[in-house]
UniProtKB/TrEMBL annotation:
Pfam families named among the record's database cross-references: HisKA_3
Originating organism: Saccharopolyspora gregorii
Residues annotated as domain Signal transduction histidine kinase subgroup 3 dimerisation and phosphoacceptor: 172-230
The name this protein goes by in its record: histidine kinase
The enzyme's E.C. designation: 2.7.13.3
SUPFAM superfamilies in the record: ATPase domain of HSP90 chaperone/DNA topoisomerase II/histidine kinase
EC class: transferase
Length: 382
C-alpha cells in the first residue's frame, strides 16, 4: 500500500486487529469465575476509545484484570497510553495500577498456597506484562518525535543552504554589476567629457549641437546602466513611460519627424515592468526609423483602458528611399522570437519582454511604411 489512501486502509486494519485479537484471546481463555468473561469483553470493547481517551480505556480493563482474563486488552491500552502520554511518572503509575490489579487478587486468594518465591515471580510477571507495552509505546512515540525533529532540522538546513546560495548569487551579481559600472562607466564618462571638450573648442554650430547631443546621450546611457545594475543614487527611472515625451523630444532634436499622442500612459498607474516595456517599444521603433526609414514621418500613439495598454508606432515611407520602411529588416523576428531574454536584441528581445508581461508585439506593413503594435495587459500576467 502506498499513498494517503493506502496508509488509511492500513491504519484501519491495524485498529480492527487491535480489538479483534484481544477478543479472540479472551474467548479462548478459561476461568472459574462467571463475571470474568463479561468484564474482559467490556475491556475489549473499551479499546475503541483508546485513541480519544486512553486512560478511560485502561480503567475499563481493570475489572477484567481482577478476573484474570483481560491481559490482552490491557496490553493494547497500555501501549496506546505510552504513545499518547509523555509524562513518565503518570505512565509509571498507570503501569503499577495495572500490575497491582492483576497481582493482588492472586496474592489475596492464594497467599497461603504459594511460596514467597512464587509470589515474587507473580509480582515480577505482572510488572513485566504491564511495563513492556507501556515502554514500547513510549519508545515509538519518542521515535516519531525524533523523526519529526530530524525532518524539521533537515528542512531548516535546506532553507539555510538555499538562503546562503541566494546570498552568494546576489553578492556575485553585485560584484559583476560594480565591475561593469566601473569599466563601462569610465569609458562613457570619457565620451561625455570629450563631447563637452568638442563643444567648447568648435566654432561650428552643427558640430557644437552634435557634441551636445552626444554628451546628453552619454549621460543618459550612464544613468540607465546604473539604474539597470541597481546602482542609481535616486529612484528616478529614466526608462519609464513617463519619460516617453522626453524620448520623443530627443528624437525630434536628432531630426526624426515624430508626433506623440498619449492618452493613457501618463494618466494610468503602470507597474514598473509595463512602464519600462512601453518605453522600450517606443525607443526601439524610433531607433529603427532612424536606421531604416530616414526622413519618414512617425506617429506614436498610446491608448488603452483599465485592462489593456496599446502602443502603436507608425511610420511612412523613407524620404531618401533607402529602405522600404521602419522595422522591415526585422519584421520576421517578431512572429517567432527566439529565446534571447528580455531585451538587448532588437525586436526579438523586445517581443520576448512583452510576451513575458502577457502581451503581444506585431510588426506589419502599413499603407506607406511599417507599423509596430504592442498590447500589454495592465494586470499582472499569469
Amino acid at each position: 500500500m502506498s499513498g494517503p489512501a493506502g496508509f488509511g486502509r492500513e491504519r484501519l486494519l491495524l485498529d480492527v486487529l487491535a480489538v479483534l485479537v484481544p477478543v479472540v484471546v479472551v474467548l479462548l481463555s478459561e476461568t472459574d469465575q462467571a463475571w470474568a468473561l463479561p468484564a474482559a469483553l467490556v475491556a475489549c470493547a473499551g479499546l475503541v476509545l483508546r485513541h480519544r481517551c486512553p486512560l478511560l480505556s485502561l480503567l475499563l480493563c481493570l475489572p477484567g484484570l481482577v478476573g484474570g482474563l483481560a491481559w490482552a486488552p490491557t496490553c493494547v491500552a497500555l501501549f496506546r497510553l505510552g504513545r499518547a502520554w509523555s509524562n513518565t511518572w503518570w505512565l509509571l503509575c498507570c503501569a503499577l495500577l495495572a500490575a497491582l490489579s492483576a497481582f493482588l487478587p492472586v496474592a489475596v486468594q492464594q497467599w497461603q498456597l504459594l511460596s514467597a518465591a512464587s509470589l515474587t515471580m507473580a509480582a515480577v510477571t505482572a510488572l513485566v506484562c504491564a511495563g513492556v507495552p507501556t515502554v514500547m509505546g513510549t519508545l515509538l512515540a519518542t521515535r516519531a518525535q525524533l523523526t519529526a525533529s530530524l525532518d524539521r532540522l533537515r528542512a531548516a538546513t535546506e532553507s539555510e543552504l538555499l538562503a546562503k546560495e541566494g546570498a552568494a548569487r546576489a553578492e556575485e551579481r553585485s560584484r559583476i554589476a560594480r565591475e561593469i559600472h566601473d569599466a563601462v562607466g569610465h569609458h562613457v564618462t570619457l565620451i561625455a567629457v570629450e563631447a563637452a571638450a568638442l563643444h567648447a573648442s568648435s566654432e561650428q554650430a552643427e558640430v557644437r549641437a552634435s557634441a551636445t547631443r552626444v554628451r546628453e546621450l552619454a549621460k543618459e546611457a550612464l544613468g540607465e546602466m546604473r539604474s539597470t545594475l541597481g546602482l542609481a543614487a535616486d529612484q528616478r527611472d529614466s526608462t519609464s513611460a513617463r519619460a516617453i515625451p522626453e524620448l520623443v523630444a530627443r528624437a525630434r532634436r536628432s531630426g526624426i519627424r515624430v508626433t506623440l499622442s498619449d492618452e493613457c500612459s501618463q494618466a494610468v498607474q503602470l507597474s514598473p515592468g509595463v512602464s519600462r516595456a512601453v518605453y522600450r517599444v517606443v525607443q526601439e521603433a524610433l531607433t529603427n526609423v532612424s536606421k531604416h526609414a530616414p526622413g519618414a514621418a512617425v506617429v506614436v500613439e498610446l491608448t488603452g483602458d483599465d485592462e489593456l495598454l496599446r502602443v502603436v508606432v507608425r511610420n511612412g515611407a523613407p524620404v531618401l528611399g533607402a529602405h522600404a520602411g521602419v522595422l522591415g529588416a526585422h519584421a520576421g523576428a517578431v512572429g517567432d522570437a527566439p529565446d534571447v531574454g528580455c531585451g538587448g536584441s532588437g525586436l526579438a528581445g523586445l517581443s520576448e519582454r512583452v510576451r513575458m508581461l502577457g502581451g503581444t508585439l506585431d510588426a506589419v506593413p502599413s499603407d506607406e511604411g511599417f507599423e509596430l503594435r504592442a498590447e500589454i495587459p495592465l494586470s499582472p500576467a499569469a
